Amino acid sequence: MLEITTQKLKESEERVSMLLEQQKIDRDNFMKRMLELEMSTKKKVEEMQTMLDDKLEEQQYLESINSSLTVKHFESNSELQNARRQLLKGLNDKLGARTKIGIRRMGAIDVKAFQSVCRERYSNDDADIKAAMLCSEWEKHLRNPNWHPFKVVKVNDKEVEILRQDDEKLVFLKEEWGEVIYKTVTNALLELNEYNSSGRYVVPELWNFKEDKKASLSEVIDYLLQKWRTSKWRRT
């Protein structure tokens, strides 16, 4: 009986020892896997950090380029505007409305339109006087910054200003004096709003009269070179 008990005790001890050994093996394997996982995670974190650093450097580089280009664009645009001003100042007595490239007064009312309409209603002498008075009256309206017959609308997700068709002054002008004078006044009004909405005074602009558009600096320079080559200005 004692031998049986001793044998069972021995077997139990062996099983416990085996369990302990297996637990040790399992624990070692677990620790090994955890260490491998930690190393793998650390490596991935380092790789991600490297990628982020590269992206940050790339972003900073692109931002630096963009900032530089913005400054250069501003400087270039400022230089172009200054060049236009110098050309306007220097060529004021050489360019007019009869040359291909000339100077147009943006926001100025065409008095000929008033004369044409008035001559249909009055005698020649009275027509010119009436046209001058009417033109002067509307020039005062145009110079008045408190009169702003525009409304803001969205076009292609962009806010733009357009004329109000229900403005009392413009409605009266069209009904009383017709389409020709109405168009002359509204064209001048649109130009003033574009070129000098706050000051409301006429602004000179280099103009391509042949194509009826604002002249680029290259167009002006090409035109001046052609004039110089033909020696038309050398004697002036």
Q: What do these coordinates show?
A:
By secondary structure, this protein is mainly alpha-helical. The protein has helices at residues 2-90, 111-121, 124-143, 168-195, 217-229; strands at 101-106, 150-155, 158-163, 203-208, 213-214. A hairpin with a 2-residue loop joins strand 2 (150-155) and strand 3 (158-163). The termini are far apart. This is Factor of DNA methylation 1-5/IDN2 domain-containing protein. Residues 104-232 form the Factor of DNA methylation 1-5/IDN2 domain.
SSE order and pairing:
Blueprint: H1 2-90, E1 101-106, H2 111-121, H3 124-143, E2 150-155, E3 158-163, H4 168-195, E4 203-208, E5 213-214, H5 217-229
Antiparallel strand pairs: 1-4, 2-3, 4-5
Oligomer: single chain
Structural class estimated from helices and strands:
mainly alpha
The largest pleated sheet is described as: 3 strands, antiparallel
Approximate helicity band: 55-70%
Alpha carbon gap, first and last residue:
142 Å
Mean pLDDT: 78
Overall 3D geometry? elongated
Radius of gyration: 42 Å
Low-confidence stretches: 71-75
Instruction: Please work out how many helical segments DSSP would assign.
Output: 5
Q: How do the SSEs run, as a string of H and E? A: HEHHEEHEEH
* Adjacency order of strands in the biggest sheet: 1-4-5
The proportion of strand residues reads 5-15%
The strand count comes to 5
Provide a brief overview of the structure.
This protein is mainly alpha-helical and 236 residues long. It contains five helices and five strands; from the N terminus they run αβααββαββα. This is Factor of DNA methylation 1-5/IDN2 domain-containing protein.
